[in-house]
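Ticket #4471: structure output looks truncated?

Reporter: J.K.
Steps to reproduce: submitted the chain below (340 residues) through the standard prediction queue, then opened the result file.
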Amino acid sequence: MSRNNCFDVVRLLAAIAVIYFHHSLMFGMEPPKLDKGFSIGNIAVQVFFSISGFLIAMSFTRSSNFLIYMGKRVKRIFPAVTFCAFIMVYFFASFYKDNIFNYVTSWDTFINFLRISTLYGRNVPGLWSEISSHTESNGPLWTLPYELVMYVILGASLSMHNSWKTPAFLLILCFFVTTLFREQLNSVGAYYATFSTLAEFGLCFFTGSLLFMTITAWNTLKVRVNLIAISLILITTLRGGNDMLAIGSIMISILVIMISLSFKERFIDGRFDISYGIYIWGWPLQILVIHYKPFGISEFVPSLIFTYLIVVIASSLSWAYIESPILKRKTQLNLNKDAV
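Returned output as attached by the reporter:
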């Protein structure tokens, strides 16, 4: 697929929106929202899942088998989050321990590191308890198990039946779970992923996948404009209603994909992708900025701007020295396959 799109910019804006959302909460402010359950943070996550579903379906079609496909996904997710977990567990947390040596060499500390690195846990006991009321070690990581589970579901399903009907079936399944069984499945799940939330995110993810698998049937400017108009009309109409969660999520996903394919940019253009780094580094760094107030910064806007600055630096370093080298290595090993 050509680079005549703006997926990179849209993902970057979504990552920026997540930081704004969390910064607002940490300052005791009410973030903007479209509707109940559709805050700017929720919508940003839906944007991520929508684009991910589209691009991951593309990644599968460019992989010769399921193992190569999953290898790409593992190399994209885990190296960066493992390094972030190491810094949180062994560097940040050690500053708040009475006996640093005992903490660093503790088996429990190593287990916490492994759990965060494998997305099976999100908390380092006592990490922020002395400096923040937000005790989650890295709040945004809670969505990554859902992302990983959907990678497996989509890849395994397409391996058995490589057709547009596969994501269509998965989308319908998510729709019925969300509309009929959401409350019953709210506490049932695995790998820190409940079935109800998995279905909610799946509405966006599998809509994106379905759109990719059917792209030759609809990818014209006229169709994209019509779909954008229909999505906006339905989102506006459904606001405040019971159908907003299910149908509204699908419309947001369609809107995101149509807009991303209707514009092209040349600033990023595949040269770098720091959106993932921004997503995983934003929470711990903004907690530190808000508590320690560097350069006397205490107001919301200056604090947010300074947070963006250091998060962009951290995510750029993560991209340059961790993510990009691994992706390049992957490309060299599979010269006939494009990486996503």
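Triage note (M.O.): checked the attachment and the full token line is present. The first strand starts at residue 33 and ends at 35.
Status: closed, working as intended.
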